[in-house]
């Protein structure tokens, strides 16, 4: 599935103090659960966004091309007037949908027992620390084995 340019819901909302405090195992477990939920919701959201674009008569790839040209002053768009209108209609719907999705993601993160700030802090650590990345992968592998009754 192609990702919709400018609307991927990757939850790296700003930067926080990366080394503010150590991450406990309990916090990391909560993060891993929330991260997995956010990833699943992100995948669903991307499919929904592609559907919105297609309802307006464009492919996701064409939407991305037109969108890139609309925000890059150095790129001239080859979009027709009809495509520009379709792009704008889809963009309006996507922006409204994106706001709702952001709020839903924040609710899911908070429901996991983490603040947005702590989630973002751990997310940044995982992005920059190979040991944290390995730890996250191990958590996911452990969950998969538990789900299969092997652990």
UniProtKB/TrEMBL annotation:
Keywords: Coiled coil, Signal. Residues 77-135 form the DUF4168 domain. Residues 77-111 form a coiled coil. Residues 1-20 form the signal peptide. This is DUF4168 domain-containing protein. The lineage of its organism: Bacteria, Pseudomonadati, Bacteroidota, Flavobacteriia, Flavobacteriales.
């Amino acid at each position: 599935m192609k990702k919709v340019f400018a609307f991927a819901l990757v939850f790296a909302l700003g930067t926080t103090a990366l080394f503010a405090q150590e991450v406990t195992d309990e916090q990391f477990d909560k993060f891993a659960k929330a991260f997995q939920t956010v990833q699943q919701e992100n995948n669903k959201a991307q499919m929904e966004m592609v559907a919105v674009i297609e309802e307006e008569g464009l492919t996701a790839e064409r939407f991305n091309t037109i969108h890139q040209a609309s925000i890059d002053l150095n790129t001239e768009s080859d979009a027709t007037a009809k495509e520009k209108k379709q792009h704008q209609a889809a963009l309006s719907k996507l922006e409204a949908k994106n706001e709702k999705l952001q709020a839903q993601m924040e609710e899911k993160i908070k429901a996991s027992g983490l603040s947005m700030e702590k989630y973002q802090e751990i997310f940044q650590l995982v992005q920059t620390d190979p040991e944290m990345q390995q730890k996250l992968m191990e958590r996911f592998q452990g969950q998969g084995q538990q789900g299969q009754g092997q652990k």
